[in-house]
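Bump. Still looking for Peroxidase structure tokens.
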Amino acid sequence: MAAASMARRFVVAACVAAVAFALLATPSSGQLDPHFYDKACPAALPTIKRLVEEAVAAEPRMGASLLRLHFHDCFVNGCDGSILLDDTPFFIGEKKAAPNVNSVRGFDVIDRIKAAVNAECRSNVVSCADIVAVVARDSVVAAAANNSIPAPTFSLDRLANSFASHGLSLQDLVALSGGHTLGFSRCTNFRDRLYNETATLDGSLAASLRAVCPRATGSGDDDLAPLDPTPARFDGAYYASLLRGRGVLHSDQQLFAGGGLGVTDALVRFYAANDDAFRRDFAEAMVRMASLGPLTGSSGEIRYNCRKVNYS
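Sorry for the wait, here they are.
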């Protein structure tokens, strides 16, 4: 019952500072059309951009959260907006899946955007899946689920296999992982690395992380640490951190000297020294990820409320 859109979806293109999306498909043709909303509702994209900027200004961490929302949506049965669906007595959605609990957030922002866009367009023409996609773009510029989403404990081999199962390459893996240049991680996601991987973890970073993340499980689980030194800026600092053993998550540090796959080491070095190349390759990888399993034509629906499917 994963719902996405009759008017499907988008394309990501490089923007001067980061990433830019375009969109969609006509309900009748089911073909992707990057100019769909130019005619269907010219106010849609500016409205989304304005509300994302407001949300990120109010809480800078929200930019990373909205980007993560798109990633988690796409890696489970394609980019269909199904991650937004609430559970019902007759339907179990993705929100309470282990990788999403206390990790994926920003649903209230999506709710506000959906209501505002419906009001501006004077009809229900913008799909929830498209909103999630455009929100991911604007967040960057402004600043089955248990088994499908790569975990922060994954080895390089498991990360590569997970991405390959979605038709994504090692370069896509390294480029998309750069999304961790924005935002924070919970202690529970890096505790094992902090206390059991001292040989590959920079000592000064370890000391600062221990201050917010005690060894004992259940103590400080939800306390946060930035994933790179510039958590509110989209840049190559994430990769520079990996070169120095300052990857906060096990899965991040695996990209550099994590298993003998020299191509990932080379890419980390390259992106650490070339912000523009990182932004370009991130945008292109987002295009490929965002094209996973699109629902076009009559395959899905444009939900009135992104939290529940439409009922006749």
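The chain is about 45% helix and 5% strand.

Edit: fixed formatting.
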